[in-house]
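Bug #77: duplicate submission created two jobs. Keeping one. Sequence:
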Amino acid sequence: MPLIDSYNRTIDYLRVSVTDRCNFRCVYCMPEEGAPVAPRDEILTYEELERLIRIAIELGMTKIRLTGGEPLIRKDILTLVQKIGAIPGLQDLSITTNGYLLSRYASDFAKAGMNRVNVSLDTLHPDRFTRIARRGNLDEVLAGIYAAQEAGLTPVKINCVAMRGWNDDEVVEFAKWTLEQPFDVRFIELMPINWSKGDDSMNSYYALSAPQGYQPNQKIQLYADTDAKSFHSAFRMKDTNLQAGQLDARELRRAFISAQEIRKRIEALLGAMEPAEVVTNGPAQSFRLPGALGTVGFISQITNDMCVNCNRLRLTADGYLRPCLMADGEVDLRSLLRSGASDDEIAERFRVTVYHKPKEHRLEDGQAPVGRNMSQLGG
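Kept job's structure:
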């Protein structure tokens, strides 16, 4: 029986963070010295990850995506991919990576059963790459992208976080890439993960692009009302006084640019785009330029959220299950795993988490996630 939440959404997609460590230091994600990471003995082992993923698949979660931090820096990551790829019932296995190490793994990933790859890339200019990512280099990332394409990990999706004053002048250049290559370039609106720590102006940020019907301070209950003790005992919010991004909340709000503005810039120079269908495109709205081999997509979780169609849960590298990216709240699976719990007991914790999946985020009410940063959540 599939997992159905209290809003009648089928939950069939699990994003699995395999590490909270990263070999980049992107300015919107973490400071130069890096973000706090969990002690290594709290990170789930491959055996624990395989068990949880198998249980999730048995519950009807047919799509698995590996994330980080940067998943390719975890030792023997190919071993985990092979283990997951062999689980009966899995329909789609993919990975999100910054691409820096991808060229050495792409072929083996494809042989192990991986279907697709998403590569995070915010600029096509080498000097700007150094400014934004502060580690690695553009040539290696591009080599990884083409290696994935050659290995058949397609469609290759390119995720670009658009930021005013940082890379917004490249949106047309990214879109032109789809005229020559069958890539799915997706522009992602800058999301307020951990922005509001020590900052009380979330509403002023959200007012930049408030949705129709938005009413300031319109409070709703974020999680379902229940007496389920297993949820209350497992629910927690991480507490940290550290700002996750190198840029502070004010700078990040200033860098925000809407998907609508990006689309207008592209169409003004390259012509009107037609709607396009892309395999397992998740929250993106995709379009195709005339004659293009690839597509241009927009993930507009701030200006036009897709919560009504959300089908996913997230598993953190240290073993906590989250029903919503944009709202703090976690269910502890690691303690169950390490205390001898049965598969049925763990499966019940999945069901409880699904029951508590909120209808929508409430960023407009200032309910932004502050417990973890993006590198700890896996995006």
